[in-house]
């Protein structure tokens, strides 16, 4: 086992790192012709990530799993699913990454297990009230003979959040019915995850991405959630309440299943475990919180090191929205004496070129937003394929695999999870050695977007990302974190030290003004900044 050491006398490595998210099933197939990505495939492509200019990679779950939610239903937290390789393969990946100077963050899924986990199988075999069931949230139902769920909670994936077992009790699953929620009020659960952390830290991982970090604890009463009437659901017509809150905000104010205060004790405990290991080991929270202030609660000095800043991902395409998010995020994390994070896409949301309008305009906006993001203090998280300018794919219904699709009939998340193209003129575009389509089919017109094609084009999105990441490393290493953002006439201006960033979110070109042009997200003819374009100046 090898680990990378801390920076002598400097800030921890994660404070201003660029982290590349690898969705393991869709990155590279190195084990054969099954069309599914795996750990040897990731290892074979680590030089690509090194050349791209990132500092670390975050790998989505590769643990033993029935794959009903593609790894986020974990059956064994201490082993590798045979689809993805072996424990020896993850050891090789870690050794190779560290040899290249790359850190490795792995996914941790503490809110729920798979229904195939040995604990849940024991719970199903045991009686109501048994120690085995106490590891999960089993409850008696309501109504005649307990035939109705214990409360009115709904699954994130659609439908009731409760499933009944043959003896009449119900178990809670905030996601798919194959993902039963653990009861974190049971001390045995906390002890188990301390052990899981140590297992992977001992193998040399550099950090953890904590799935559903705002979950874990539920209000002990498991009371009903107060929800609006059917004709007042979020997104339906209707104005704010007398206090000025939108319907969405009113729903968010009553969530007995999220953001419970006890969850912070878990992360204080984990911080202590992480601190026992050398090399600035870290954890980043996936916490869909209500405000930047509540997000910052997860990164207080004795809790987790980072939390994803989803306010940046959710911001509308406008200079005003971007400026507000930048200033509010920096202010919120400053209270916690922490550094912000910035992210535009991940495996759960629509890819940002599509979100920004799609086509050439959507791609231009995506490149501009990325360039602005890379100038900001703190860490930037990239999602695989965004450096190729990939858009959301309209996956045919017969090829969709997201469990939310089967529960709701909505397209789900498959469109951002299509395996990325490496080379060649037809699927699978060098994704693996096999022929034909991988586990989610790739578009037939992706050949110009492959890594091979874009490396040969200095104007490609991949070439732009390589230049932008090199500029960040050269110009902003050790830069002052003091940053301000303003919006004037649809132009975002960010100042950080001697760097000046402009992003034109308007419809007409504007003068660049004085200053040396360091890098741009697109052409800037005649010293003008076109719409949908960003630049760095000094």
Describe the structure.
With about 550 residues, the protein is of the alpha/beta class. It has 15 helices and 20 strands. The protein has an eight-stranded parallel beta sheet with strand order 11-10-9-5-2-1-13-12. A five-stranded antiparallel beta sheet has the order 14-15-16-20-18. A three-stranded antiparallel beta sheet has the order 6-8-7, with no helix packed on it. About 5% of the residues have low confidence.
Task: Compute the number of helices.
Answer: 15
Trace the largest sheet across and list its strands.
11-10-9-5-2-1-13-12
Strand content: 5-15%
How large is the radius of gyration? 23 Å
Question: For the residues shown, what is the average pLDDT?
Answer: 93
The strand count comes to 20
Q: Could you give a short account of the major beta sheet?
A: 8 strands, parallel
Binned, the helix content reads 25-40%
Low-confidence stretches: 231-252
- Helix/strand/pairing category: alpha/beta
Q: How far from one another are the termini?
A: 43 Å
Please write out the topology.
Elements: E1 18-22, H1 39-44, H2 46-52, E2 56-59, E3 63-64, E4 76-80, H3 87-99, E5 103-108, H4 118-125, E6 138-139, E7 162-164, E8 170-172, H5 187-203, E9 207-210, H6 247-252, H7 263-275, E10 282-285, H8 292-296, E11 306-307, H9 310-314, H10 319-335, E12 341-343, H11 352-355, H12 359-374, E13 379-383, H13 403-408, H14 451-455, H15 461-476, E14 483-488, E15 491-496, E16 499-504, E17 510-511, E18 517-520, E19 528-529, E20 533-537
Parallel strand pairs: 1-2, 1-13, 2-5, 5-9, 9-10, 10-11, 12-13
Antiparallel strand pairs: 3-4, 6-8, 7-8, 14-15, 15-16, 16-20, 17-19, 18-20
Helix pairs in contact: 5-7
């Amino acid at each position: 086992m090898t680990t990378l050491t801390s920076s002598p006398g400097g800030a921890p490595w994660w404070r201003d790192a660029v982290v590349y998210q690898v969705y393991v099933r869709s990155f590279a197939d190195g084990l054969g012709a099954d069309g599914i990505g795996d750990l040897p495939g990731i290892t074979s492509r680590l030089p690509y990530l090194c050349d791209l200019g990132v500092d670390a990679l975050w790998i989505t779950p590769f643990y033993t799993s029935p794959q009903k939610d593609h790894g986020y239903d974990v059956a064994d937290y201490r082993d590798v699913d045979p689809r993805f390789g072996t424990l020896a393969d993850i050891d090789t990946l870690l050794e190779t990454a560290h040899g290249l100077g790359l850190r490795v963050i792995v996914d941790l899924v503490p809110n729920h297990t798979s229904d195939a986990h040995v604990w849940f199988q024991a719970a199903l075999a045991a009686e109501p009230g048994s120690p085995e069931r106490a590891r999960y949230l089993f409850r008696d139902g309501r109504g005649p003979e307990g035939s109705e769920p214990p409360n009115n909670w709904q699954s994130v994936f659609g439908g009731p959040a409760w499933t009944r077992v043959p003896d009449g009790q119900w178990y809670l699953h905030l996601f798919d019915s194959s993902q039963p929620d653990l009861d974190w009020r049971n001390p045995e659960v906390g002890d188990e995850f301390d052990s899981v952390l140590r297992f992977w830290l001992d193998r040399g991982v550099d950090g953890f991405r904590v799935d559903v970090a705002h979950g874990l604890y539920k209000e002990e009463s498991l009371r009903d959630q107060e929800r609006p009437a059917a004709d007042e659901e979020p997104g339906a017509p209707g104005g704010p309440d007398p206090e000025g809150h939108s319907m969405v905000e009113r729903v968010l104010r009553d969530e007995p299943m999220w953001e419970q205060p006890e969850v912070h004790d878990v992360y204080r405990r984990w911080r202590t475990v992480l601190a026992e290991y050398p090399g600035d080991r870290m954890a980043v929270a996936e916490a869909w919180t209500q405000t930047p202030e509540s997000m910052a609660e997860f990164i207080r000095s004795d809790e987790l090191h980072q939390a994803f800043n989803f306010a940046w991902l959710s911001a509308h395409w406008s200079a005003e929205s971007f400026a507000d998010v930048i200033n509010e995020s920096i202010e919120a994390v400053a209270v916690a004496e922490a550094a912000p994070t910035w992210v535009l896409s991940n495996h759960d949301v629509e890819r940002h070129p599509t979100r920004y309008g799609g086509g050439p305009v959507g791609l231009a906006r995506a490149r501009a937003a990325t360039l602005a993001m890379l100038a900001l203090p703190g860490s930037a998280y990239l999602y695989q394929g965004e450096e190729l300018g990939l858009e959301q794919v309209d996956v045919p219904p017969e090829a969709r695999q997201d469990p939310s699709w089967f529960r709701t009939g909505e397209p789900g998340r498959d469109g951002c999870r299509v395996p990325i193209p490496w080379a060649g003129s037809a699927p699978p575009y060098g994704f693996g050695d096999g022929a034909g389509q991988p586990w989610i089919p790739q578009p037939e017109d992706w050949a110009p977007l492959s890594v091979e094609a874009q490396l040969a084009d200095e104007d490609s999105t991949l070439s732009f990302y390589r230049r932008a990441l090199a500029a960040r490393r050269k110009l902003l290493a050790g830069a002052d974190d003091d940053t301000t953002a303003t919006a004037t006439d649809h132009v975002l201006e960010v100042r950080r030290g001697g760097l000046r960033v402009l992003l034109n979110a308007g419809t007409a070109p504007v003068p660049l003004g004085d200053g040396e042009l360091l890098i741009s997200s697109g052409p800037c003819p005649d010293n003008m900044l076109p719409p949908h374009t960003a630049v760095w100046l000094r």
